[in-house]
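Note to self: keep these together.
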Amino acid sequence: MPGRSEESHLVWHEDLGSQAARGPLMGGRGESSSPWSALRRVAPLMILASFIVCLVLYYVSPMGAAAVYAASETTGLDSVTTEAYRKRLRIRGTQRRLPQALIIGVRKCGTRALLEMLNLHPHIQKNGMEMHFFDEDERYANGLEWYRKKMPYSFDNQVTIEKTPSYFISREAPARIRAMNSTIKLLLIVRDPATRVVSDYAQIMETKLKKGRQVAPFHKRVLTPDGEINDGFKAIQISQYAVHVLRWLREFPREQIHIINGDNLIRDPFAEINKVQQFLRLPPYITPDNFYFNETKGFYCMRNETFQKCLAEAKGRPHPYVDPTVMSQLRKFFVPFNEQFYEMVGQNFGWPTS
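Structure:
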């Protein structure tokens, strides 16, 4: 043909030869023993078989689950999206179980950091969303089977953990949890109650500012017009740990409640996480190498063999300026509550008194 190179001319004739080599069923003129012809006939079947094998491995192999989790961590999917994918993933030998451990609080003391750090352990299966099952009547009315179906799939040797910080201050949650499982293990993380109030206020302030709403200065929220501590401010009520822990100790023995020092979790995460490993009777899988200090963020991040992860930007947000006089007044207010708390739990946290 005009304009064709010698190379293309040769290829054209090679194609004609291939057509002629096809058997009657393939539109050719006779049988052929060419290996290329045989490969063309079986190639579609091989591709289909490979696709089916990939699907089977993806949905039933434990390695498939690990791949999904590792991919979600390294690609930066948010925890809610990751949790949605993981909940749909049914792995051979797993089932949904009621939690064997709960992180019950306290809000703004490091509950999310605690959950993510524990999730480094292969024997931990976290439920990433706060369920509010035991502290909201409407959800509790759905029943335990509804709650169980909201849990992730887990193996027999894994501990399923759910986190809802508002359980700690709920009047109903302790008895409801005991009715579900009287031997459940409870994790409670606390920090300096005055600092916790500031952190709580910082989150409230950020949320309101994003919605274009005005925010009262810190001192006007924590103090009454006559200069006394505003005991009606919910952030201050939450920090009265002794008031709330009493309800839990009425329902559970002290040895079923492990209390984590949230201030120390920031400074030395492994020391606190290792105690939790022991409390949950897990093999000592998490080591100091699983934590590294991120100079840019100013706090510890996590890593294992497949990924590195830091908490979201909202975690560790900067606190607003607080007048030292107001902070001192706030700390003095909490002293009797703290002393009572130390006595009730048999643990002195040494929080500032002024």
